[in-house]
Amino acid sequence: MPHTVHSRTLVRALTIVGDQDRLRERLNVSALQLDWWLKGLSRPPDDVFLRAVDIIARHEASEARTSHPLQIQMGSQPARCPNCDTTFFASAVPETEVNNRTQLSCLSCGLKIARGDLIVHLSSDVAKQGAAHVVAAKRMLSAAKSGIRLAPAKENATSQRKDPNESGSDR
Ligand SMILES: [Zn+2]
Fold first, then answer.
1. What pLDDT does residue 24 have?
2. What contacts 24+ positions apart, CB below 8 Å, involve 168-171?
């Protein structure tokens, strides 16, 4: 028999409570029954199923209470998870209290990464997109590192090397 929504729900509840003994107590069922249901070999009664759903719902509600979804922006670029490329993260503290050492977790794959590391990753992404972005990224990065506000840009004047072969590249 293929895995059913019932067995998947029980497996999810199992990963939340930790082990089969604890799940068995929470659901008030025998170990043998639970094993069968987990394997999808038979279908649990509705009241057992609903108790498993309840375990999951409570868990998700408490996770939602303790995490704050946020996006990390640099200019118009959202930071992406190095692992799965999503742009949504969660932190255990509200966005206003997030600093570079705050551990963020990717809402999609669960990767944990410090905000500062994420910004470094983002700035290397941005670097692929052009020199103007790099300057902006570096300014934002150093501002983020020192925690000070952005100063007016002077680095913009840094020598923009002109390739002799490329002179008059107006099209
Ligand atoms: Zn991810």
1. 97
2. none
User: What is the whole-number distance in angstroms between the Cα of residue 82 and the centre of ligand 1?
Assistant: 7
Q: For every residue of 43-70, which 3-state class applies, written as one string?
A: CCCHHHHHHHHHHHHHHHHHHHHHCEEE
The CATH topology of domain 5-66 is: 434 Repressor (Amino-terminal Domain) (1.10.260)
pTM of the full structure: 0.43
For residue 96, give the DSSP letter: G
In angstroms, the Cα distances linking 162 to 127, 154, 159, 168, 169 are: 19, 19, 9, 10, 11
59: CA distance to ligand 1 center in Å? 21
Distance 78 CA to ligand 1 centre (A): 13
Tens digits of residue pLDDT in 12-59: 999 999 999 999 999 999 999 999 999 999 999 999 999 999 998 888
For the chain, the domains span: 5-66, 68-147
